[in-house]
Design a protein that fits this description.
The protein is an all-alpha fold. It is about 70% helix and about 0% strand. The chain is built from 14 helices and no strands. The chain has helices spanning about 10-50, 70-80, 80-110, 115-125, 130-145, 155, 165-175, 180-185, 190-205, 205-220, 225-230, 240-250, 255-280, 285-290. Helix 1 (about 10-50) packs across helix 13. The chain starts with 10 loop residues before the first helix and ends with a helix.
Length: about 290
């Protein structure tokens, strides 16, 4: 039997170990503080939505007297089901357009050679620097007055149909894929759409999921544009309905602050749930495995 090698010891090594443990403890404390600071607004929102009392009475560490009356009250005031349906239709429409146009444009900018490709990519980067609020007035005139799409789902979706961030994301992802895969497919006679569908897109699942989540958060929480183009309450998404409740309907419920927090909880649940479900896919990639063997 071979003798076990003794661990090195000495004053210097002991001091190093203590410093290492102290550094780990310090990082743990900082991360814990950051986690508490991040989670406290969610705790405040959830507890406030379940309290009978006003928000000013939320100082107690252990919540008591929890009830679901606030959810019933806000649902009676603005119809949560209809507002959620409007938000869902708008968001799903934007997601479909983002994937279709983002994948096609990103693949073209990454793999196809055509005159002006660099200028198109530079314009794409410049577009990301233009705030949406700057384009709100001309978009309103174009979509509502010229196209007549006020109080219409298409009018809410159209300005967000092409997402420059998603195009950039797909372009960068497709650019990192091995060129040998595409060259072999072209030699076999595959068209560019077939290459995209059968080779590039299956390996781009992390990029697709990332683009979906990032794009979902935008239209789901969007307030300004739907507020401008929807005058009918039955067409307003949840974010706009909550703003209308805050401005005009607070007097119709016994606990306005609790009802508002209840609506905010309903608005936040889908985004948080999607992130928790798909976060493990963000760092996974199949690019390396595609070239092995």
């Amino acid at each position: 039997m071979s003798a076990t090698t003794p661990e090195p010891s000495g004053p210097g090594i002991t001091v190093t170990r203590r410093r290492r443990r102290g550094g780990q403890a310090g990082r743990l404390v900082l991360l814990s503080i950051g986690a508490v600071a991040f989670l406290f607004p969610f705790y405040y929102m959830i507890v406030g939505s379940l309290r009978k009392k006003t928000v000013g009475d939320l100082s107690a560490a252990v919540p008591t007297g929890l009830t679901g009356d606030n959810y019933t009250a806000v649902n009676g005031a603005i119809s949560l089901g209809r507002s959620l349906l409007n938000s869902g239709i708008m968001t799903i429409g934007v997601l479909i357009c983002t994937l279709v146009f983002g994948v096609l444009a990103g693949y073209a900018l990454a793999q196809l050679r055509f005159p002006g490709r660099g200028a198109v990519f530079a314009a794409l980067l410049l577009v990301q620097m233009v705030p949406f609020q700057l384009l709100t007035l001309p978009l309103y005139v174009l979509v509502v007055r010229d196209y007549g799409l006020g109080d219409n789902y298409l009018g809410m979706i159209l300005p967000f149909a092409i997402n420059s961030t998603a195009v950039f994301l797909f372009r960068q992802f497709f650019s990192q894929m091995p060129q040998s895969l595409f060259e072999a497919a072209r030699i076999d006679g595959a068209s560019e759409l077939r290459i995209l569908w059968r080779i590039a897109l299956p390996m781009a699942r992390p990029a697709v999921l990332t683009a979906l989540l990032l794009t979902f958060i935008g239209p789901w929480n969007e307030f300004l544009w739907p507020f401008l183009v929807t005058k009918n309450a039955d067409m307003q998404p949840l974010a706009v309905s909550l703003a209308s409740f805050l401005s005009n309907l607070q007097g119709t419920v016994a606990n306005p602050a609790g009802a508002l927090l209840a609506g905010a909880c309903v608005l936040a649940v889908p985004a948080v749930a999607l992130f928790l479900l798909f976060q493990r896919h963000f760092t996974s990639t199949d690019i390396d495995s595609a070239t092995k063997g």
